[in-house]
Specification:
heterodimer, A: mainly alpha, 12 helices, B: 332 residues, alpha/beta, Rossmann fold, Alpha-Beta Plaits, 2 domains, 6-stranded mixed β-sheet, 11 helices, binds adenosine-5'-diphosphate, binds magnesium ion
Chain lengths: 281, 332
């Protein structure tokens, strides 16, 4: 390695007495977008790996529960239609959650990588919002690819053009909810506890989210119905089910949107508080 | 450019009565620190581990909230307008925080994009900084594949991408090998020459003395002294020394010359030292008061024994001695 020998000559013209020039009118919004662009570039570079990662679990769930059990006669013929919207919800929420929780744990404690973004000219809370928005994008993609996979494995999926927009909005809400939960996990859980916490949180989250059955059908197991009602994912599953298979009993769709939105606000506030606490001492 | 004018000089950093008490900590980590850094100055923060150097840098760079007091960087109050402060300051933290998913060049370019540097400018600037910091041969490598010295230089290059008014370096040379450290010093000297204001922390007194225009000595969260390295050392009235090296003559021996030197007025003690070159005799003479007037009498005594004086050095106490004097402890 050779050391450049002329000191001042090698220095770029802008390194010198302070001149803020091009940076002065730069808004936090644009900084946030630049950070988002970085995240998209990094994920885009390994998009196939990302897809494989998010598709595998729902793919197997769809295949075993939707196809194998039905063909073997253990599940009723209509079960596929009940299951599919729930698995879309599961993909959105889980992918959103994993896309914030793990990176945050790593960036805050091991790699310190997040520092460069915390030192960028935007409010600390905006860094958290960017993380959530980006994670929700991943969640949305994971949920969206369930549709072609569903067609491929099940032959057909429940689908109505008239509710397509509402379905998309619910998928966005679900992804954001997952990302907000991940923000909380990633900022409140100490790094040495993250494995345990994941095991203790993810499994109940997956199995109380009403993704494999309609929530109203839990009437007979009242306590489980109550527990499931506390899980934000329930409202995403039920909302999507109501929009895609209206004939199946479901929680009123408007109520699903309202509860999911309220949950989102609450989880974001808690998560942002935790993020601020970690980011500033 | 927001810079505070105070009297005649332009201030790059102004800190007044800065106090920091971490949550649940039993004592203050900063107990009311005040100092000012002039524009274009290299300001050294010298203190042992745990002195409060990183805490001070953390507050000035908006990562730590002060408990009390005021800190202004390039005219921006860091507590009142952290976003504005981040626009005008650059940080090289104590620990590697490079983006591991990005290449070296991308680290620089994305950093600039966060700061709104236009695309053409940032590409050009990245290339020229990589060149300047000796990193141009592997711009597409990942940070994990580089040495500590190279990572340190990457972080400096990255911090310069948005043309900060003040550059903060937290213990940049800790853990580097001597060659990497010298290269780093050279780079910092170049930045100073180019007019960049630099605030650097270190627990190495050589580093503080070599790089800084002024040095603040800090311990237990309190500023103990602040001045140019020369002034700090001159403030130490004791422990002046005269180091003499000579070629032995045909007659006389080292021990009796030592005794003769010890007999001179104003000499407190004489120690014979190893001569690094290996051929001559070396003595360190501890002096009461000023050492300069003793040079002539010493030369006379040496000449009388037939030896030839080849080197005389007026030994100054160094910053480490100043620290020991102020705290009663060594720096490390
Ligand atoms: N996050 C923290 N929480 C509690 N105490 C801290 C924290 N960071 C530093 N300290 C304490 O503050 C003091 C100063 O630390 P620091 O500024 O890191 O020192 P230096 O950088 O000079 O080695 C030390 O006693 C340290 O233990
Ligand atoms: Mg430190």
């Amino acid at each position: 390695m050779s050391a450049p020998s002329e000191p001042a000559a090698g220095v770029p013209q802008s390194v010198g007495p302070p001149t803020v020039g091009p940076v002065a009118h730069w808004g936090p919004w644009r900084t946030g977008l630049a950070i988002l662009r970085r995240d998209l570039m990094v994920t885009g570079r390994e998009f196939p790996i990302f897809l494989a990662q998010v598709i595998l679990q729902p793919l197997f769930l769809l295949f075993v529960f939707g196809k194998v059990l039905t063909e073997l006669g253990y599940a009723q013929p209509g079960y596929q239609e009940v299951l599919f919207p729930g698995l879309v919800a599961l993909a959105a929420v889980l992918t959103g959650l994993q896309s914030t929780a793990l990176p945050l744990v790593i960036e805050f404690s091991y790699s310190n990588e997040i520092e460069d973004r915390l030192l960028a000219p935007l409010p600390v809370g905006a860094v958290a919002v960017e993380k959530v928005v980006f994670a929700a994008m991943r969640g949305f993609v994971a949920a969206a690819v369930m549709f072609p996979i569903g067609v491929w494995i099940l032959g057909s999926i429940p689908w109505q053009a008239s509710t397509a927009v509402a379905v998309a909005v619910m998928m966005v809400l679900g992804s954001l909810l997952g990302a907000a939960m991940g923000l909380i996990l990633g900022t409140y859980v100490p790094p040495n506890r993250i494995n345990v916490t994941f095991a203790l949180v993810l499994t109940p989250l997956i199995f109380t989210g009403s993704s494999q059955y309609p929530w109203p059908s839990l009437d007979h197991i009242r306590w489980f119905q109550v527990v499931s009602a506390l899980n934000p994912m329930t409202y995403v599953s039920e909302g999507l089910r109501g929009l895609m298979v209206p004939s199946v009993p479901h929680i009123a769709t408007w109520a699903c949107f309202v509860v999911a939105a309220v949950y989102l606000v609450v989880l974001m506030l808690v998560g942002m508080y935790g993020f601020n606490r970690r980011a500033l001492s | 450019m927001p810079v505070v004018a105070s009297g005649e000089t332009t201030l790059a950093v102004e800190v007044r009565d800065l106090v920091k008490r971490y949550a649940k900590a039993p004592v203050d980590s900063l107990t009311g620190v005040s100092f000012q850094v002039k524009q274009g100055e290299v300001f050294g923060f010298l203190g042992p581990n745990g002195a409060g150097k990183s805490t001070t840098i953390g507050i000035l760079t908006t990562r730590i909230r002060p408990t009390g007091g005021r800190a202004v960087v390039a005219g921006v109050d860091v507590a009142a307008d952290p976003v504005g402060a981040r626009r005008v300051l650059g940080v090289v933290p104590q620990q590697n925080n490079l983006d591991r998913s990005l290449s070296v060049r991308q680290n620089l370019i994305y950093h600039a994009s966060y700061h709104g540097v236009p695309r053409a400018t940032r590409n050009q600037l990245a290339d020229s900084l990589l060149e300047q910091f000796g990193l141009a041969d592997r711009p597409d490598g990942r940070p994990d594949d580089f040495s500590g010295g190279q990572i340190q230089r990457m972080m400096i290059a990255r911090a310069l991408m948005h043309d900060p008014a003040v550059l903060f370096l937290d213990e940049p040379s800790t853990g580097l090998d001597p060659a990497a450290r010298l290269f780093l010093w050279e780079k910092i000297a170049e930045l100073k020459e180019a007019g960049t204001t630099v605030v650097i922390t270190t627990h190495d007194m050589d580093e503080a003395a070599t790089l800084s225009d002024r040095v603040a000595i800090i311990d237990h969260g309190t500023l103990l002294a602040l001045d140019t390295p020369q002034q700090l050392v001159q403030g130490m009235h004791s422990e002046r020394t005269l180091d003499c090296t000579m070629e032995p003559g045909p007659t006389g021996d080292a021990a009796s010359l030592g005794i003769a030197l010890g007999g001179l007025a104003g000499v407190r003690a004489v120690d014979q030292l190893d001569d690094p070159a290996g051929t001559g005799w070396r003595y360190r003479i501890d002096v009461d008061g000023e050492p300069a007037p003793l040079v002539a009498p010493v030369a006379t005594v040496v000449a009388e024994t037939g030896a030839k004086l080849t080197d005389v050095r007026l030994g100054e106490p160094n910053l480490e001695d100043v620290f020991i004097h102020l705290t009663g402890r060594a720096l490390r």
